[in-house]
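Operator note (shift B, R.M.): manual run for Chorismate lyase requested after the automated queue skipped it. Running by hand, logging everything below so the morning shift can see what happened. Input copied straight from the record, untouched. If output looks odd, do not overwrite the archive copy; leave it for review.
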Amino acid sequence: MTRRLEKHCGQIRVRRFREGFVPACIEAGEAALLPDCGRFWLREVVLYGHDRPWLTARTLVPAVTEAGPAQQVLSLGDVPLGQWLFRHRPPARAVIQFGRVGTLWARHASLRLPEGQPLLLTEAFLPDCPLYASGDDVPEQ
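Run finished. Output pasted below as returned.
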């Protein structure tokens, strides 16, 4: 998604809102897609293009996967997750679900990092997102 958005503005800017370990009190839909563990790494960001908010993203990584590639997710800083994920071998997608959150389109993606560690990514496409450009209020797939 990051590459697709960069085509519209050249460079995506990340603003982190929340980042750190959280207890296992996650949403039921998320819990079904992740292993049961005591805590998770949570990263919530907004991606901006042309200084306008285009997308919100929420990343969850089980704390039991802190080693290996998952460790790098914990220290992304202001680097878009998609930039890091697709730098090498693209992750395997176990599940991808599209739907609406209010008036916004959103998607859940359950990914497997190179060593098999799970990662859950939830994205909501904000009204200024250029993927709504078709005019029918649905982001291009």
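Quick read of the result: The first strand starts at residue 13 and ends at 23. The two ends are 10 Å apart (CA to CA).
Leaving this for review. - R.M.
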